[in-house]
Amino acid sequence: MSLTSMIQVFGGLAIFIYGMKLLGDGLALVAGERMRSILRMFSANRFVAVLSGAAVTCVIQSSSASTVMVIGFVNAGLLSLVQAMGLIFGANIGTTITAQLVAFDIGWIIMPSIIAGLLMSFIPRPKVAAWSGTIIGLGFLFLGMEIMSGELKFLAKDPVFMQAFQTFQCAPVNGYLPITGLLGAILVGVVATCIIQSSSACSGIIIALGASGLLDIYTAVALVLGSNIGTTITAQLAALASNRIAKQAALAHTLFNCIGVIITVLCFWIVTGGEPVFFKIIKGMGGDLPRQIANAHTVFNVVTTLVLLPAIPLLAKICERIIPVKSDTKVKYEFLEPHLLETPSIALTQTSAALRKMTKKAWKMVNCALNVYNRNDEKNQQIEKQLEKREADVDERQQAITAYLAKLMTRPLASRESEQIPLLLHATNDVERIGDHAAIIRNIFSRMEEGELKFSPSAEAEYDKLHDVLASLADTTIQMLESPGTEKQVKAAELLGRLKAMLDISEKEHFARISSGDCKPGVGILFLELLEEIRKVARHFENINDRATMFYDIPVSGESK
Question: CA 415, 549, 428 angle in degrees (round to 5)?
């Protein structure tokens, strides 16, 4: 085999994989909002989860990408193990769409797709640009397939090249597939898919080899079975840095595919009319060899899913037994899950959830500082001792959210998704500033303690009312970050208006108390400083509320660290 031929084959493979990526990315960009709607269905039941998994995988054209997304969902607390397994089962069905697609002999679509996609890319509209990538990707997919198939047909005449493909020949002998050849071909499929990291791409190569005459249906199916096991390596790698439930989901993917391969291989020994019944069914479905390979891939995944679907609870228990979660250890969910960056709409939802968690912590600091004056019970004193540590934690969360959004900006984003990022960044900065005000408020009370100063009874009453209204505003803001709504927005505006009016009145009355001598000037200055801090905190909450109505509002089920 010449170097030129090698370059042609791998060049075709490169174009094929690139086309598959363009196609998947374009469809994901177009269907980003719909994918969010699909995610809402996950909790319904395992059957809906399978359909959802198949639909999402059809969109992104990769079961590896889908399962990595699932690992991210589980690690973020968006899915339980059972829900994740349903999605993984569905992903195995959805991934067969690529094989079915490339099995069509429609080379005439290549150039029209590339030309149309290129022309559409010049139209300055995000939606059109997303479709242009999808259409160009479709053209490149078939172009790569045609280049590979054409060159492989030429190489099929080379005796040396042909001999290499006879090593793991799986054609039946006396009606039965040779076990050595079968296991060897499965192993080749496993290794090849581990290297390529895509079962869809591996299926395309197998179909191209079949179309060139280098593979028969028996060896091709064995390679497809191996590719289904090999594709699970991506999920295993993704789960390495995830929590134990995510690791259980990755294990479930591997067990599911391995059990499916074992069941299918056992069926090869059910012979009728001198041929395994599995292959008799595939051939009976009609079509040329590429279509038969694609059909075998689909039948394998659909039948395996139907057989194992009722066993999901049992399989989940096996995974939990193999990778147990210790009873004395709390599972940590990560809102800013790196794998979710590939699904921007979900990543934005998670960022909003992380912001909500950060807001709770920042408000807890301010509330503690405000409690120091006259509500400093034992619990508050414990929080007070940790204020410096808590402020550092809030600062770290701000940095984490900012870094996460910076990474997200490098991904292909829909226009509405792009609009979310500056909103979230500004809100994050506001929350960080709220945390800073806790230290300033605590410092005001420290100065009062040093001078043994106290507010006048009327000032204390005003302070308590201001504290209570600010607490209500904080609670409403946190609720807004969870699920924005008109009712909460109206309530936040009403609380904010009341608080501003109360602050104005307090300032006027306090100046009057200082003038009349009811309040010492030293205490009066500190009280005015405190009013200004409350005003600033309220202003930050106002900024967050103004932006919260424009955030994504998918609820999450887990709590991160």
Answer: 80
Q: How does residue 429 score in pLDDT terms, banded at 50, 70 and 90?
A: very high
- Other CB atoms within 10 Å distance of the CB of residue 266: 10
pLDDT at 32 > cutoff 80: no
Which homologous superfamily is 338-548 in? Phosphate transport system protein phou homolog 2; domain 2 (1.20.58.220)
The residue ranges of every structural domain in the chain are 3-322, 338-548
Spatial neighbors of 42 by CB under 8 A, at least 6 apart, are 48, 49, 52, 78, 79, 83, 86, 87
Helix axes 81-94, 312-322, angle to 10 degrees: 110
- How many Å from the N-terminal Cα to the C-terminal Cα in the chain? 56
Q: What is the pLDDT of residue 554?
A: 41
Closest CA to 1 of 151, 148, 146: 151
Residue position matching structure tokens 């050849």:
181
The pLDDT value given to residue 555? 41
Closest CA to 93 of 66, 119, 71, 113: 66
Q: To 10 degrees, what angle do helices 378-385 and 344-371 make?
A: 120
Average pLDDT of span 415-434: 91
pLDDT of residue 271: 86
- pLDDT tens, residue by residue, 82-131: 888 888 888 888 888 878 887 877 778 889 989 998 888 888 776 777 78
Residues 84 and 253: their CA atoms lie apart, in Å, by 9
Provide the phi-psi class of 77: left if phi over 0, else alpha when psi is between -120 and 50, else beta.
left
At 68, which helix (H) or strand (E)?
Answer: helix 63-75
Cα separation, 524 vs 520, in Å, equals 6
Question: Are 354 and 90 within 8 A, CB to CB?
Answer: no
Give the mean pLDDT of 153-178.
72
Cα angle 379-381-383, degrees, rounded to a multiple of 5:
75
